[in-house]
Known about the structure:
A: alpha/beta, disordered C terminus, B: MetI-like fold, 2 domains, 2 strands
Amino acid sequence: MTAEAAQPQMPLLRVRDLKIRIQMDNGVMNAVDGVDFEIRRGKTLGLVGESGCGKSLTSRALIGINPKECETSGTISYRSSSIEPEAKEEPLDLLTLDPNGRKIRSIRGRRIAMIFQEPMTAFSPMYTIGNQIMEAILIHRTKNKKEAKKITLEMLSKVGISDQEKRFDQYPHEFSGGMRQRAMISMALSCNPELLIADEPTTALDVTIQAQVLELMKRLQQEFGMAILLVTHDLGIIAEMCDEVAVMYLGKIVEQAPMKEIFRNPKHPYTKGLLRSMPRLGGNKTKRLESIEGSVPIPINMPPMCGFYERCKDRIEGVCNMRSVPVTQISGSHTVRCFLYSDQQGGDNDGEAHIGN
Amino acid sequence: MLQYTLKRILLAIPVVFFISVIVFYIIQLPPGDYVSNYAAEASVAGEIFTQEDMDAMRADLGLDRPVYEQYFIWVKDIVLYGDFGFSFNYNKPVLDVIEQYMGLTLTVSLVTMAFQYLVAIPIGIYCAVKQYSVGDYFFSGLSFLGMATPHFLMAVILMFLSYTWFGDPLLGLFSAEYVNAPWSMDKAVDLAKHMVIPVIVIGLSGTADLIRVMRGQMLDELNKPNVITARAKGLSEGRILFKYPTRAALNPIVSTFGWSLTSIFTGSTITAIVLNLPIQGPVMFNALLGQDMYLAGTWLLFMALLTVLGTLISDILLAWLDPKIRTEFRGT
């Protein structure tokens, strides 16, 4: 079964074999090591994993805003619908574009927008909120300042900020955390993007505000019909928001499936560990919450082996630590990168299989 | 904002008063006074002063009174008549002496300052953006050299170079024929020519300093998330650079502006002596040497006042530049 057969419609964004290498003093760090995923129009893909697994780098690589030190390879084919709907236009490989060039800049903020984890530092303290939101509109939508301001005020009211005229002229420090993130969302959505990349959008907010912001994102997703790539480490948010989930570990996607499938039928030991370490309502109060033992190795000069080997309870010695792990198809849309489900345990495949290839 | 400014000015008054006491105390500290100095110099020239002569001279100058009485007379004259006393060395009122040198001092200082900011800020930005590039190392090396080289040495080297290359060490601020000439185009050109060395020498360490500060600030700012946000919005690198990191990095630079006020008015002493510049620095130095107490005292007081004023200006500038502080004032 091929990916095309499963999804007759061409996805908005298809990432293939994305690799990000960073030159360190003691070798090359494979921060992102061969990531494949697809984002479908109007759907939400959750990218989940612990700190340092490369999920933020992956999301930023999509619009080429990683620092120069990140050597990026692979393909990111992007097929915009708003340019020419249903046209047989060749998809655009975003990675081939000059990261400072005009072409990618016309996509950033316009077609693919991004919101960040810490809205306090993501806004500059030097300019008013209005100025910073209007900036994107002035680049992409209109040169007329009055009109841009009108759109800005509209956007502010859409994200539930009242008294917009006054808010427009206020500085980020005069906003509360939740309000700042709302403003951030209004900035990202101000140009009506097809894809919103949300990098831990609620991590810096307290729980009640988190729920509000997620609710807001969901509502606006329906209203604007955009796709969302949601980067998070919080499985609760995944359950709340996502259609599909990709679990990332040490620069690789170890398991990918529709959201319900991940929660009902997790395959990879790491995914299982993540789910077990999640607190549950009505769970056993006296039992300690489980955690995954050990810590993430640093991906520098790693031999070909499973990155989770050291921490895995189900590891197969002589197999998992000897070769890199191929991707195994569990069902049509469920893939896992683990020898436990692979029929190649004894084979000599180097594990370069990709979904849909 | 206005309230804050007024409060700061009111607070400065006792500070200035306290400083004036210390200043007066300090200029009384060295053994002897202007008269004994004068007598010693005169005796070298073969003129003998008797004790009576010296006492008469002291009485004449008011130096025979108790110190506190001298202080109160000095302060009273300043406050009531704006009279800062009499310069023994120049034999005219202190204010006249200061006025005589003020024009050129300000010219040299302001040009130097402009030189510092205009050179240092672009270089600092360049060094941060191209961190660890050849250019960065070159300018960093140069700025360390600039910070470490003593002014007077630099002055001598540049004079030597100017002499070997152009046959003129460019001493002073004017060529001999223009010193007492009325202002003309030629005189201005001559002044500009003579200013090159002083401006470089006086400005060098400040420039070097500013380059380091600007570079450090920029490096901080360039890695801030708001730069990434701006990039994600689709702004071009050039606009991002000037709108976000540069604007934020300028705050600490601009706030140092006030502190340089003292050096603007007093000029650079040692460089001025080496280069024979007719600016305030050497005048001050001679006043201290010759125990020309009112001139020296006025000078010290003036410097202290400028420091207080400079700090005040810095604070107000910073409050005005930083939206966070600004809104705090708007709120109250």
